[in-house]
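step: validate -> pass
step: tokenize input -> pass
step: predict -> running
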Amino acid sequence: MRIEGVPASAGYAEGPLFDLGRPASIYASKESAAEEKMSLEAAIGKAVNRLVAMIETADSDAAGILEFHLAMLEDDALSGPAFASIASGEPADAAWRQALDAEIAGYDASDQDYFRARATDLRDIRDQVLRALTEDGGSTAPAGAILHGEDIAPTRFLETDWSHGGGIALKAGSTASHVAMLARSRGVPMVVGLREPLTAVAGIALLDAEHGNIVLAPSPVEIGSFRQASSAFTARQGDARTFLARPAATKYGTAVRVQVNIADPSDVDGIDIATCDGVGLMRTEFLFGKTLPDEETQYRAYRKVLEWAGEKPVTIRTVDAGGDKPVPGFTVEEGNPFLGLRGIRLSLARLDIFRVQIRALLRAAPHGNLKVMFPMIATSEEYERAAALFAEERAALAARSIAQEMPPLGIMVEVPSVAIAPEAFAGVAFLSIGSNDLTQYVMAAARDNAAVAHLNSVRHPAVLRLIGSVSAFGRETGIPVSLCGDAGGDPASISSLLEAGLRDLSVAPAQLAMAKAAIADVPV
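step: predict -> pass
step: emit ->
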């Protein structure tokens, strides 16, 4: 039986199915309320310790997710109702489940997208503590298993040992979810939006996350065809590595710049600068964790990456908080955060925070080839206000004889108003297309909604037409144009992007080899 879905992280997995929704082991009740309270406290402590341990070894993307879970788990307001129920005679597992389920129901019923999205985090926290309460060894997937269910929590992904293979097959999920991004960065095959729920079957299942399907109870012929496709995919990956050290070029020799996207200064420690053309996007919101970073912290982070890159450009994006990236003490709760006070809008509303980042960037600029871009720009006035702030802060630093330099200032092209009328931005130094947000706004299809995943494609003619018009505007005006969204590292999309006129892509480091190999096959 073959079930179709949507590829979220390319690859192949062959192994037994493991149900993510399987019930936990039965909790052994204690003899007194005091012991139940101690049992829940110990389970919460174990869950906290697991999160702390994962944060210590996680990359910046994963650490940001885990730190948010940790903050919620350590919030007494979350555990208080459970302890109250224990005092009334409830066992620890029932008390915790009831307290969290009530909280989850409230979030699910909210008319605000932000709160509904947080319900997933609460379910994850609930299940982490329940597993700690039961010491449920049965909740650990066997090596090489294909994890299946409605969805998967980031912590479940991170605590799974993927060194022996395995994959993920989900009824819901999204190609733009946190787990999908983690899966791509680690090479874990993943399919989302399965058309039918999976049923437990004996023997192995075959997950084809290159084309987007899973085969249950496969026949010998299906197994043979699958293994042949898997071997071919592995061979292509091996061949792609030979492109790493070469400059990227198309089949007919057209040069293409390929840069990398990073989220934290430590990301560059595992990248050989010789394999890429610089940093096309350095996200800065992951510096904004539990506390807002001061100027010195930001300066050191930016300087590290600039010195690593040497003469090659490093494009740092000012903080893009909001949307699916809440920052305590900075972002605001909104009914539709993707269309609200996020990106440059939020920075211009909180000048006390924005000016700190501006000063850190100006001070870091002399240490390398810095470019700065503003996210979520919709009007030329927003760009002009942000640029004026850079000029003000530079003058203030110069007056204090502090070393600084004005970097080229550009914008993200992710709001359709900019892509439709780019002539309003003839004064910017460069344009960088954010394909993730541009696609979701053009197609009115949320990045994290599996039900509309088939609409969220950068290869839709409407999206490609806008990308082509921005590329043409860049050629006509001499303004450099690049693309730094997920599409740049997707081999299936690269041909369309180059045919639309792009010659500068920025990709996740793990996608660098495959992107260069895909470029070499494009006849332009």
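step: describe -> DSSP finds 17 helices and 16 strands in the chain.
step: cleanup -> pass
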